[in-house]
């Protein structure tokens, strides 16, 4: 099950499409879906919550079990949903056989609040509060809107504190030049896992395993990095 990052779609700019093909070549079937308020799914981005994503993961995993009868289910989260997927694996260990995290955002409060100029001492500035009230959201990125609910959730839903409860062997892949979610976050996370955890670093790669400012992954270096990530992930998931 592939869970895309925030502000994109289930294709992840074509990366998840190629990843799905690579998994199929390794004998691993996959399913991907659009988060609420993304792609072809209904709803508004500003109404999306971390808890809603957890529920969507629960429902889709149940569908996979019923539709395929598979005895092993793997969960893969990218960027914004990496923390949610890790949290789900920690809280529902009986459901997940293996966990994969691509440049995961594991500490939501740090990324969503602590590093934002419109939050001061855990309070919104007056200007940001007025903007949130007026339009119902603040921009987290050019393509992702956060509503009031998620700003409340991040104080309490802390995936980085639950990593020790993950029982599934875990693969983390992270670019060393990631400016959105620094690789040090994944390096610090590895020793928190009690289950086997492998970190693969992609030297020089920006967020999404691409060169800087290549959102459509057209640069040959981006394509080479992503092909390596696909092979690495498929081989790791196909291990017995």
TrEMBL record:
GO terms of molecular function: carboxylic ester hydrolase activity
Superkingdom classification of source: Bacteria
Domain called AB hydrolase-1: residue spans: 2-160
Keyword Hydrolase: yes
Keyword vocabulary terms for this entry: Hydrolase
Regions annotated as coiled coil: none
Pfam families named among the record's database cross-references: Abhydrolase_1
Gene3D superfamilies: alpha/beta hydrolase
InterPro entries: AB_hydrolase_1, AB_hydrolase_Est10, AB_hydrolase_fold
Protein name as annotated: Alpha/beta hydrolase
Record organism: Streptomyces zinciresistens K42
Lineage: Bacteria, Bacillati, Actinomycetota, Actinomycetes, Kitasatosporales
């Amino acid at each position: 099950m592939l869970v895309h990052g925030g502000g994109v779609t289930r294709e992840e700019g074509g990366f998840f499409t190629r990843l799905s093909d690579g998994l199929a070549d390794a004998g691993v079937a996959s399913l991907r879906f659009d988060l609420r308020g993304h792609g072809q799914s209904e709803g508004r981005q500003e109404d999306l919550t971390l808890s809603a994503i957890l529920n969507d993961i629960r429902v889709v995993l149940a569908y996979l079990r019923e539709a395929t009868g598979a005895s092993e289910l793997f969960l893969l989260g990218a960027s914004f949903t990496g923390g949610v997927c890790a949290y789900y694996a920690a809280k529902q260990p009986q459901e997940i056989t293996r966990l994969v995290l691509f440049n995961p955002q594991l500490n939501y409060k740090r990324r969503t609040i602590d590093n934002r100029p419109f939050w001061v001492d855990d309070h919104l500035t007056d200007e940001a509060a007025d903007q949130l009230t007026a339009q119902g959201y603040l921009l987290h990125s050019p393509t992702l809107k956060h509503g009031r609910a998620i700003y409340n959730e991040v104080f309490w839903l802390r995936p980085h504190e639950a990593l020790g409860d993950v029982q599934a062997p875990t693969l983390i892949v992270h670019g060393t030049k990631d400016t959105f979610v620094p690789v040090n976050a994944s390096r610090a996370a590895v020793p928190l896992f009690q289950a086997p955890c492998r970190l693969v670093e992609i030297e020089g790669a920006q967020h999404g395993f691409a060169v800087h400012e290549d959102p459509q992954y057209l640069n040959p270096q981006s394509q080479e990095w992503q092909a390596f990530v696909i092979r690495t992930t498929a081989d790791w998931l196909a291990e017995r």
